[in-house]
Amino acid sequence: MIRIAIANQKGGVGKTTTAINVATALAATGWKTLLIDIDPQGNASTGVGVSASAREYSSYDVLVDQAAIEGCVMPTSIPGLDILPATVDLSGAEVELVGADDRAHRLQQALRKDIGYDVCLIDCPPSLGLLTLNALTAADTLLVPLQCEFFALEGLSQLLQTVERVQQRFNPDLGIIGIALTMFDRRNRLTDQVSEDVRSCLGQLVFETTIPRNVRLSEAPSHGVPALIYDHACAGSRAYMALARELITRLPEKRKAA
Ligand code: ADP
Ligand code: MG
């Protein structure tokens, strides 16, 4: 199983939208996919149709109580896609785990054994706290959604520093699979400029596929389905399909490995 963390400490940059739609695209490609929601807001869970009242077990149980992950995942209405949902009690996890020596390794421990998926995507909260640290420690690689806006690169350097620290202390093998530019608006000169700057600064690290600003992407969550299901032909869905294809070409040949 390949473990991919989707992280950026900024909120509202498209992490959850990327997690949901890339997960759906991978599932549609025939990959058995697990979406792991570790944001207490639970937007990824809602976005794949798992309402708060339907969440019997959650990532809280896995991280805090060390429940077996396979007993906590739930199916979604999307074939091939399961979810480990998040609940609000996860917002207390950071404090509850403060005395635990292995607090940064809880997710890694949970994902160590083969639980029957080809890939898992971990949707992180908008911070670099313990929850994101768990994701970066557990992950093989990191996907960073980056909104095309003026301060985009500033936040990125902080994130890359965190990645370096995680590589030194917790997970030497953590890679960065790519940076995905999101909410691109070609009518807006600024987003165009930012996109060019990011590409010239980071080169190959940036995915060729750019995710456009697209109202269908923002409408889909209120219907409890990924945009890819809500309107598979819209520009946003097509971009996420392309991003998933590009992601697959970048992934190492470890899909079936434990
Ligand atoms: P994050 O998880 O980083 O906080 P979200 O994926 O939740 O970000 O996106 C923030 C908001 O922007 C949500 O309301 C989402 O529906 C919307 N959104 C995300 N990506 C796009 C896009 N490409 N075009 C239009 N709206 C988007
Ligand atoms: Mg989110």
From TrEMBL:
One Pfam family it belongs to: AAA_31
Domain AAA: 4-175
Top-level division of the source organism's lineage: Bacteria
Protein function: Involved in chromosome partition. Localize to both poles of the predivisional cell following completion of DNA replication.
Name listed for the protein in its UniProt record: Chromosome partitioning protein ParA
Naturally occurring in which organism (per UniProt): Novosphingobium endophyticum
